[in-house]
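Anyone? Bumping this.
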Amino acid sequence: MAENKIPYKIYLDESEIPSKWYNLRADMKNKPAPLLNPGTHQPMTAAELEGVFCSELVAQELDNESRYIDIPEEIQNFYKMYRPAPLVRAYYLEKALGTPAKIYYKFEGNNTSGSHKLNSAIAQAYYAKKQGLKGVTTETGAGQWGTALSMACSYFDLDCKVYMVKVSYEQKPFRREVMRTYGASVTPSPSATTQVGQKILAEHPGTTGSLGCAISEAVEAAVTNEGYRYVLGSVLNQVLLHQSIIGLEAKAAMDKYGIKPDIIIGCAGGGSNLGGLIAPFMGEKLRGEADYRIIAVEPKSCPSFTRGVYAYDFADTGMVCPLAKMYTLGSDFIPAPNHAGGLRYHGMSPVLSQLYADGLMEATSVAQTEVFAAAEMFARVEGTLPAPESSHAIRAAIDEALKCKETGEEKTILFGLTGTGYFDMLAYEKYHDKKMTDYVPTDEELAVYRAKLPKID
Amino acid sequence: MAENKIPYKIYLDESEIPSKWYNLRADMKNKPAPLLNPGTHQPMTAAELEGVFCSELVAQELDNESRYIDIPEEIQNFYKMYRPAPLVRAYYLEKALGTPAKIYYKFEGNNTSGSHKLNSAIAQAYYAKKQGLKGVTTETGAGQWGTALSMACSYFDLDCKVYMVKVSYEQKPFRREVMRTYGASVTPSPSATTQVGQKILAEHPGTTGSLGCAISEAVEAAVTNEGYRYVLGSVLNQVLLHQSIIGLEAKAAMDKYGIKPDIIIGCAGGGSNLGGLIAPFMGEKLRGEADYRIIAVEPKSCPSFTRGVYAYDFADTGMVCPLAKMYTLGSDFIPAPNHAGGLRYHGMSPVLSQLYADGLMEATSVAQTEVFAAAEMFARVEGTLPAPESSHAIRAAIDEALKCKETGEEKTILFGLTGTGYFDMLAYEKYHDKKMTDYVPTDEELAVYRAKLPKID
């Protein structure tokens, strides 16, 4: 390694952290479809959205034209606490695979929240503060997003109300305590603090909750508490905008050393990481300046891209949010409980959905046990213990590198390592104890959920 | 912040990672006292030590003369996976405290094992591999050292047998699973796999284990298995040597920006972090080239420096290891179970003990709830969630910075942030739920253990 000119980790200087986010939509010929009012099926207006979301974030959500948006100085200052994130040359993984491919990964787990989610959390908290709000509400499952948001709110001295799916609240207390360390109030959902929670508790006294229910409670809490708005960690256009910092930094680091990736790989749940990682590369592709193979990787247990349909659907199980046009499995779809690998969202970012529909990117799905095998191999040779979500991208990167081994091609592969697996050790334990199984929904199962999609022309 | 010339995080270039460890003992006028054979009370010979430890590590243990020792290239390559570790200017903490002091911390938690322990683990694994051994054995409590060692052994394809205190094995399964991810075998101690374990199980069938018992099992496993040696993560001279990389990097980063610390603060359990952090600074002090205030911080519940005695004592509760001259509370001393903040070792590095006895450094002790208050404040303003152990240093750094606020002095403070608290959220939970209490042993308690110290002239 020592003789190679490219260091193991490429760190940009602090002064090279991007000062603008890149808005991919500006370069898209076919813009993502607008959000629709669930009652009228008409495009949501800014005024309607501002009842739920912060005004500046609504403006970003609807802005399909501005190519760059300045990152406010306060957010830039916060970014300096954990950015630039390193671009790592996976020399050890290459050697272990015996591949001629050159593998790079952008590592976003070097912050206490443990993932890339912080990039958007701090932006959303900033605009909430700027608007003079008291606080924000959100939902969280295992807690990655809630943790990031609580850190961001602590920095801007904003109240942060997190509705956490009850089963996670009780069985995964660690991220809950990280959130409390940052001063957030964490409520197990369903709870008696909202009408929708009370209703669900009355109907299903023993329920352990669901993400859909937690979203509904968080939205109700935002709308009914003076000075609060609701925030979301993925799927939305604004989130992809903030996450473009991942791709901008990765591209700057690669440009600095004259590296051009042939293949760019990201895991995809709601699309926040993938959309951010690929943004500047996809921009070049859309403008005809360069070409890249771009691959979304999803779990076989929740295959929105590869087995879903491109249609308007509810963004949440509770059906209180606007309708979004996206690749979806149906808003009632929930992966089987044996799926421990994250990326459980039934839909996909409207931006990425449009790009996929236009043939500008590929998608593949991988089985959970293959993902954990890749995760363990990666941990052993590269040191870093990856999050299960991130490991979907590792799996696909390894598979592409092994193809290079067969063909002898020296392709350059870039993938996103979105976070660490410190809080996912129960999933690793299942894998070690050979209790982990793969779940692949049948065509019949998927058809049941697809039939329930709202009918929109 | 933006206008300040000193970046938030100072990263050395990869080429600036030190290529030699610094051996503080070479500059000590009064050398640390030698280890003694527990049977004969004579200094342990290299031959005796080599029955338990790797030969090259024994040489390092006994070498009081070589000022620098080359870091083998294989170890340098591994260091590049997670080093250089950043030196961070705590701008946000300074602002929150309103202090004129300038606070810096060297952050060693940016690797999967989550702490500085990896710096020595990789060195010890390397020398074991070089000696042609099959594997190594060790003990671990909550698992920080075991995790680091399992990563290191995975890198060199060495077998790694970890004896983990049973109560931690059962109640803190997360680090256990990280170790298994890296291929280590983790055995709850006491176990039926050793004679000493069988004996203890027969006498105390319901025991949940102790560190002392785990050490005894690990040493027995090393001695009775062909091709194995025992390794230890703190206390020993060799460990401080390897950990000097912390101080060397910190000093190089400070020198680069013309910064000279007035006060250097480190938490102290067995002394591995503190000894490493202060090494090059103490070297200058010993050679009369510069002066620094150096402060060891320990918990009030386990106050080896501040309330112990400087005497020969057993290094382990099982009394199978050599005798070491050190500040000690007695080898039977165990902090009360309500102490969740780590740093539970009854003794202290012989090197640091000699320096303290010679008046070259200070020591202070802090109460657990004060430590967690500092930890939570630090997390909120600086982002990073600190390990309870590291937070002892944070507490003392904050206290020194507050003194500067009173006096108006612009002192420069450097402290070691040894690791992250991701696996310590149950302790944080106790703190949040106001169930955490402080424990301070009475003089009478301490006298009981002191009376049991071995009588050595």
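Late reply, but here is one note on the structure posted above: The two ends of chain B are 57 Å apart (CA to CA).
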